[in-house]
Design a protein that fits this description.
Chain lengths: 125, 125
């Protein structure tokens, strides 16, 4: 069970940042109407609003590099909490930005997962 | 509802780090047998193991300074996810250490909350 939680967490993280970096317009497919995002203290709800926010960020091309992934089962049946640290390299910028982000994943009836909770913060040194 | 979630998150964070900094031997009271802590990738389960770990950390006196608190309702009935960034000043060290931490709080039958999920990571620059 613990191993499966880790596997789901890692697979989700790969998929999420791959979509973010290469096909950001599709990232709304990972959220549902109930989903919540807090992005640098700004609160958004629902896949459409979240997708609009992420696609309107003031940078185009970027590359996420993941440093750590910690996953735990949440108490919600089948839910998984994933905590990520890493950095984002923006096109044309010299230095990557460090960030921390957490996701609460909930199983779908189709046997996949969607993001119910998403909180993102840049780490200032 | 949103305001109440924020209030619970802030009150919990105040209480948690106050206990950690001033009465760390009591911190196990915030956890239950089902609780999980991942501390710098080390996994612990249950209030006794978690309390033992936090009380065996290789520093005595410390002071947490909180930079940001983001809270969201989790999908679990009445649960709250709290995401914290801040720094820890250890006694005798020149520079504080930056950290990120998330808590998943679950309501108790007594009308309070306990920590079901806790993930802690130092932020390296």
């Amino acid at each position: 069970m613990e191993e499966q939680t880790e596997m789901v967490g890692r697979a989700f993280v790969d998929h999420y940042y791959n979509l973010f970096d290469n096909d950001r317009s599709s990232i709304g497919t990972l959220y549902q109407p109930s989903s919540m995002l807090t992005f640098e203290s700004q609160k958004l709800q629902g896949s459409e609003n979240i997708s609009a926010k992420l696609n309107a960020l003031p940078f185009g091309q970027c590359r996420h590099a993941i440093s750590t992934i910690d996953s735990q089962p949440s108490s919600f049946a089948g839910g998984i909490i994933v905590f990520v640290s890493g950095s984002i390299q923006l096109l044309g910028e010299d230095h990557p930005l460090r960030f921390s982000q957490m996701f609460h994943l909930i199983p779908t009836v189709e046997g996949s997962f969607f993001v119910q909770n998403d909180i993102f913060r840049l780490n200032y040194g």
